[in-house]
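Person: I keep going back and forth on a fold encoding question. Show me how you would write down a chain together with its backbone fold. Please set it down just below, with no commentary around it:
Helper:
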Amino acid sequence: MSETDVEDGEEKKGGGLIKIILIVVVVLLLMVGTAVGTMFATGFFDEKPADEDPETALQDIESEIEETEGQIAAAPGPKTAEIEQKFLISYYTFDDAFTVNLKGSKKVMQVKLGVSTYFDKDTMFKADEGSEGWIPRHLVGIRAAILKVLRGVTADRIEGPNGEAEVLEELRMVINEQLEKYEKTTAAPVEEVYFTEFIVQ
Protein backbone atom coordinates (compact mmCIF):
# COMPACT_ATOMS: atom_id res chain seq x y z
CA MET A 1 0.00 0.00 0.00
CA SER A 2 1.39 3.39 -0.95
CA GLU A 3 1.59 6.47 1.25
CA THR A 4 -1.00 8.18 -0.97
CA ASP A 5 -3.61 5.48 -0.23
CA VAL A 6 -3.00 5.81 3.54
CA GLU A 7 -3.37 9.59 3.40
CA ASP A 8 -6.65 9.27 1.41
CA GLY A 9 -8.06 6.82 4.05
CA GLU A 10 -7.15 9.15 6.90
CA GLU A 11 -8.72 12.11 5.06
CA LYS A 12 -11.94 10.10 4.59
CA LYS A 13 -12.08 9.18 8.29
CA GLY A 14 -11.37 12.78 9.35
CA GLY A 15 -13.92 14.12 6.88
CA GLY A 16 -16.67 11.80 8.22
CA LEU A 17 -16.07 12.94 11.81
CA ILE A 18 -16.19 16.60 10.83
CA LYS A 19 -19.47 16.03 8.98
CA ILE A 20 -21.06 14.41 12.10
CA ILE A 21 -19.86 17.27 14.32
CA LEU A 22 -21.23 19.83 11.83
CA ILE A 23 -24.62 18.06 11.68
CA VAL A 24 -24.88 17.95 15.50
CA VAL A 25 -23.94 21.65 15.75
CA VAL A 26 -26.49 22.60 13.06
CA VAL A 27 -29.25 20.58 14.82
CA LEU A 28 -28.41 22.21 18.16
CA LEU A 29 -28.43 25.66 16.57
CA LEU A 30 -31.83 24.93 14.98
CA MET A 31 -33.24 23.80 18.32
CA VAL A 32 -31.93 26.85 20.18
CA GLY A 33 -33.14 29.12 17.39
CA THR A 34 -36.61 27.54 17.48
CA ALA A 35 -36.82 27.92 21.29
CA VAL A 36 -35.67 31.57 21.18
CA GLY A 37 -38.05 32.34 18.31
CA THR A 38 -40.96 30.80 20.23
CA MET A 39 -40.06 32.86 23.30
CA PHE A 40 -40.00 36.05 21.22
CA ALA A 41 -43.31 35.14 19.58
CA THR A 42 -45.05 34.51 22.91
CA GLY A 43 -43.72 37.76 24.41
CA PHE A 44 -41.43 36.10 26.95
CA PHE A 45 -38.80 38.84 26.54
CA ASP A 46 -41.34 41.70 26.57
CA GLU A 47 -41.26 43.96 29.60
CA LYS A 48 -44.03 42.91 32.00
CA PRO A 49 -46.53 45.58 33.05
CA ALA A 50 -46.61 46.35 36.79
CA ASP A 51 -50.00 44.69 37.26
CA GLU A 52 -48.67 41.36 35.93
CA ASP A 53 -45.76 41.28 38.38
CA PRO A 54 -46.46 38.37 40.75
CA GLU A 55 -45.45 40.33 43.86
CA THR A 56 -47.64 43.30 42.89
CA ALA A 57 -50.55 40.97 42.11
CA LEU A 58 -50.16 39.27 45.50
CA GLN A 59 -50.13 42.64 47.29
CA ASP A 60 -53.28 43.69 45.39
CA ILE A 61 -55.08 40.48 46.41
CA GLU A 62 -54.09 40.94 50.08
CA SER A 63 -55.33 44.55 50.10
CA GLU A 64 -58.66 43.46 48.51
CA ILE A 65 -59.09 40.79 51.21
CA GLU A 66 -58.43 43.36 53.96
CA GLU A 67 -60.95 45.79 52.41
CA THR A 68 -63.58 43.03 52.13
CA GLU A 69 -63.06 42.01 55.77
CA GLY A 70 -63.46 45.64 56.83
CA GLN A 71 -66.70 45.99 54.83
CA ILE A 72 -68.10 42.77 56.33
CA ALA A 73 -67.31 43.98 59.86
CA ALA A 74 -68.90 47.39 59.16
CA ALA A 75 -71.97 46.05 57.36
CA PRO A 76 -75.20 45.88 59.35
CA GLY A 77 -76.31 42.37 60.30
CA PRO A 78 -79.49 40.67 59.15
CA LYS A 79 -82.65 41.64 60.97
CA THR A 80 -84.08 38.21 61.74
CA ALA A 81 -84.11 37.04 65.34
CA GLU A 82 -82.24 33.80 64.67
CA ILE A 83 -79.41 35.21 62.57
CA GLU A 84 -78.91 38.58 64.25
CA GLN A 85 -77.46 37.24 67.51
CA LYS A 86 -75.18 40.16 68.42
CA PHE A 87 -73.89 38.59 71.64
CA LEU A 88 -75.85 41.14 73.66
CA ILE A 89 -77.79 39.26 76.30
CA SER A 90 -81.34 40.33 77.27
CA TYR A 91 -83.38 39.31 80.31
CA TYR A 92 -87.07 38.83 81.01
CA THR A 93 -88.83 38.07 84.28
CA PHE A 94 -92.27 36.50 84.55
CA ASP A 95 -94.58 38.86 86.43
CA ASP A 96 -96.47 36.20 88.38
CA ALA A 97 -94.95 33.65 90.73
CA PHE A 98 -95.36 29.91 90.19
CA THR A 99 -96.77 28.08 93.23
CA VAL A 100 -96.99 24.26 93.44
CA ASN A 101 -97.06 21.48 96.02
CA LEU A 102 -93.84 19.48 96.00
CA LYS A 103 -94.53 15.96 94.75
CA GLY A 104 -95.12 13.47 97.61
CA SER A 105 -94.87 16.19 100.25
CA LYS A 106 -97.01 18.70 102.14
CA LYS A 107 -94.44 21.40 101.37
CA VAL A 108 -95.29 24.23 98.99
CA MET A 109 -92.76 25.71 96.55
CA GLN A 110 -93.18 29.23 95.28
CA VAL A 111 -90.76 30.56 92.68
CA LYS A 112 -90.35 33.53 90.38
CA LEU A 113 -88.48 32.94 87.16
CA GLY A 114 -86.38 34.93 84.73
CA VAL A 115 -84.90 33.96 81.36
CA SER A 116 -82.04 35.23 79.22
CA THR A 117 -81.51 35.23 75.46
CA TYR A 118 -79.11 36.42 72.78
CA PHE A 119 -82.02 36.88 70.37
CA ASP A 120 -83.44 40.32 69.60
CA LYS A 121 -85.05 41.73 72.76
CA ASP A 122 -88.23 42.99 71.04
CA THR A 123 -88.68 39.73 69.13
CA MET A 124 -88.52 37.78 72.37
CA PHE A 125 -90.07 40.02 75.04
CA LYS A 126 -92.02 42.92 73.53
CA ALA A 127 -95.30 43.27 75.42
CA ASP A 128 -97.22 45.70 73.13
CA GLU A 129 -100.61 44.34 72.13
CA GLY A 130 -100.76 43.35 68.48
CA SER A 131 -96.99 43.01 68.14
CA GLU A 132 -96.08 40.85 71.12
CA GLY A 133 -92.76 39.11 71.38
CA TRP A 134 -92.56 35.34 71.44
CA ILE A 135 -92.77 34.88 75.22
CA PRO A 136 -95.78 37.20 75.82
CA ARG A 137 -97.53 35.70 72.77
CA HIS A 138 -97.16 32.13 74.06
CA LEU A 139 -97.28 32.92 77.77
CA VAL A 140 -100.23 30.63 78.51
CA GLY A 141 -98.53 27.57 76.97
CA ILE A 142 -95.18 28.44 78.53
CA ARG A 143 -96.70 28.84 82.04
CA ALA A 144 -98.54 25.52 81.67
CA ALA A 145 -95.31 23.74 80.64
CA ILE A 146 -93.42 25.33 83.56
CA LEU A 147 -96.10 24.30 86.08
CA LYS A 148 -96.07 20.74 84.74
CA VAL A 149 -92.32 20.49 85.41
CA LEU A 150 -92.56 22.11 88.84
CA ARG A 151 -95.39 19.79 89.94
CA GLY A 152 -93.10 16.82 89.30
CA VAL A 153 -90.31 18.12 91.57
CA THR A 154 -89.80 16.31 94.88
CA ALA A 155 -88.40 17.82 98.08
CA ASP A 156 -85.38 15.50 97.94
CA ARG A 157 -84.57 16.52 94.39
CA ILE A 158 -84.82 20.28 94.88
CA GLU A 159 -82.83 20.11 98.12
CA GLY A 160 -80.10 17.94 96.56
CA PRO A 161 -76.71 19.36 95.56
CA ASN A 162 -77.60 19.82 91.86
CA GLY A 163 -81.37 19.90 92.27
CA GLU A 164 -81.95 23.56 91.42
CA ALA A 165 -79.64 23.45 88.40
CA GLU A 166 -81.38 20.33 87.04
CA VAL A 167 -84.84 21.86 87.46
CA LEU A 168 -83.72 25.10 85.78
CA GLU A 169 -82.30 23.16 82.83
CA GLU A 170 -85.54 21.21 82.50
CA LEU A 171 -87.49 24.49 82.53
CA ARG A 172 -85.21 25.93 79.85
CA MET A 173 -85.88 22.93 77.65
CA VAL A 174 -89.69 23.08 77.97
CA ILE A 175 -89.79 26.84 77.32
CA ASN A 176 -87.67 26.37 74.19
CA GLU A 177 -89.88 23.46 73.07
CA GLN A 178 -92.92 25.76 73.20
CA LEU A 179 -91.15 28.50 71.22
CA GLU A 180 -89.68 26.09 68.68
CA LYS A 181 -93.09 24.47 68.19
CA TYR A 182 -95.03 27.66 67.50
CA GLU A 183 -92.41 30.02 66.08
CA LYS A 184 -90.73 27.37 63.88
CA THR A 185 -87.29 28.43 65.07
CA THR A 186 -84.41 26.00 64.60
CA ALA A 187 -82.30 27.40 67.45
CA ALA A 188 -83.01 27.37 71.19
CA PRO A 189 -84.02 30.99 71.89
CA VAL A 190 -83.78 30.84 75.70
CA GLU A 191 -80.17 30.65 76.87
CA GLU A 192 -80.75 30.23 80.61
CA VAL A 193 -83.54 30.18 83.21
CA TYR A 194 -83.06 31.67 86.69
CA PHE A 195 -84.85 31.58 90.02
CA THR A 196 -85.36 35.23 90.94
CA GLU A 197 -87.30 34.18 94.05
CA PHE A 198 -87.35 30.74 95.67
CA ILE A 199 -89.41 29.73 98.70
CA VAL A 200 -90.14 26.24 100.04
CA GLN A 201 -92.33 25.99 103.17
Observations:
- The longest helix spans residues 3-42.
